[in-house]
Amino acid sequence: MSTMSIVAVVVGKLWDMAAKEGELLGGVKKQVEKTERELKRIQCCLKDADSKRSRGDERAENWLNELRDVAYRIDDAVDTFHLELEDCKKGRSLWDKVKKLVKEPAIRHKFGEELADIQNLLDEISKSKNDYAIAPLKNQEDGGSSDTIIMPKRRTAYQDVDETEIVGLESDKNNILNLLCPEKTAGRAKKPARRAVITIVGAGGLGKTTLARMVYERQVH
After folding, report:
1. In what residue span(s) does the Disease resistance N-terminal domain sit (predicted)?
2. Looking at the structure, do residues 160 and 101 belong to the same domain, yes or no?
3. Domain ends where: 105, 131, 157?
4. Beta carbons within 10 angstroms of residue 21's beta carbon
5. One-character DSSP codes across 152-191
6. What is the model's pLDDT at position 103?
7. Do 34 and 110 lie in a common domain?
């Protein structure tokens, strides 16, 4: 997955957490919001960095690779946080309830420490962009634009499901493809609109990561 794609996915995940899981996050919510804000600031520079990379700028390529690694680390941290909390909910005995009371704060603390380390890395990445002359591009100047696909609530969660068995994401996938490749979906040749970022947001478990992967695989193949 490209740096632009994974960053957009992670920004959506962090937005979901801050908006929908405030009580679950407790005191870590502010760190989630801070990480999202910093990542969105960096996100504005991705078009310029990708343009420099395509012209052979190795520094821009290294910068994008570093950012992609951090984005994947955030993605892993969010998933691990949810999995560990889910594991705490298993069992109904009194002892299980006691373990939950002890484990949940520890899990939040661990997640908070991971986010603190990640924020330090994002600070370094944000500062280094100035050394590489990477800057945000205004949409009106370069013709780029940013779109957000907001997924409606569904009854079915798409976690741990084979993509070939997924039903209900085809329409969302086609909507994104229409934005990415309007000249293809329209069936006639015309100059495509340049999209800087397309963000997919929605409640947890809707299949946002799966949807992004489906679009990416379609684009590659």
Report:
1. 6-90
2. no
3. 131
4. 18
5. PP-SS--TT--GGG--S-HHHHHHHHHHH-HHHHTTS--P
6. 87
7. yes
CB 41 within 8 A of CB 122: no
Using 50 as the pLDDT threshold, list the residues of the chain that sit under it.
Answer: 140-167, 189
Output the pLDDT for position 127.
93
**pLDDT tens, 182-197?**
655 555 545 555 555 6
Residue 85 makes CB contacts below 8 A (sequence gap 6+) with 24, 104, 107
Residue that the structure tokens 């804000």 belong to: 37
Rounded to whole angstroms, the Cα distance separating 209 from 159 reads: 9
Q: Report which of 103, 71, 98, 109 is spatially closest to residue 84, judged by C-alpha positions.
A: 103
List C-alpha distances in Å: 94 to 24, 27, 72, 85, 97: 21, 26, 37, 17, 5
The model's pTM: 0.61
Within a 10 A sphere around the Cβ of 14, how many other Cβ atoms?
Answer: 22
Residues 40 and 93 in one domain: yes
- Cα torsion for 164, 16, 14, 181, to the nearest 10°? 50
